[in-house]
Design a protein that fits this description.
Layout (H helix, E strand, L loop, with lengths): L1 H20 L5 H20 L4
């Protein structure tokens, strides 16, 4: 489960800048999702494994 969340966060984090580069419609929404992906990655970094 932790690995799946890490992969999802990474994909969201990369999607925002890619949407800006390729001028997708609603690119600002992709940037918000990119911020959420960054929050997911950093929260997983600080939560200890059991």
């Amino acid at each position: 489960m932790r690995t799946a969340l890490l992969i999802l966060g990474t994909v969201l984090f990369i999607a925002g800048p890619a949407a800006k580069i390729y001028h997708f419609d609603h690119a600002n929404s992709y940037m918000i999702a990119s911020g959420l992906g960054l929050v997911m990655i950093t929260s997983l970094a600080f939560i200890k494994k059991k």
